[in-house]
Amino acid sequence: MKPVAAYVTITDMQRSIAFYNRLWNTQPAHTDTRYSYYDLDGFSFGLFDPAGDGETTVTGNNSVLCFKVDELAVAYDHIRQHASTIDPILETQHVRLFQFTDPDGNRLEVFQEK
Fold first, then answer.
1. Using CA atoms, how far apart are residues 46 and 104, in angstroms rounded to an integer?
2. What is the mean pLDDT of residues 92-96?
3. Which residues contact 81 (CB under 8 A, 6 or more apart)?
């Protein structure tokens, strides 16, 4: 089994698209008012607005998506220009990492292996 996609629940599609466009310097592969997604080197990262289905869902703080980078400092400098909150860089035995939130409070993590 290989993970190929994940999505976060959002409340404002246009705001989220603008945030992730700036974050990844790319446009979504597909956009509509209910579900939009980015193709990130074969991994589909989606934005889901449950209001399009008449659902109500709590956003933020219910999962953490992790992204591996080669240069953590470069990623940190770029993301801190766009994220509503960003934590300081932490070092563990095997990785350096930081977490940040998107406009709906979803937590994302970026890490670099040592």
1. 14
2. 94
3. 22
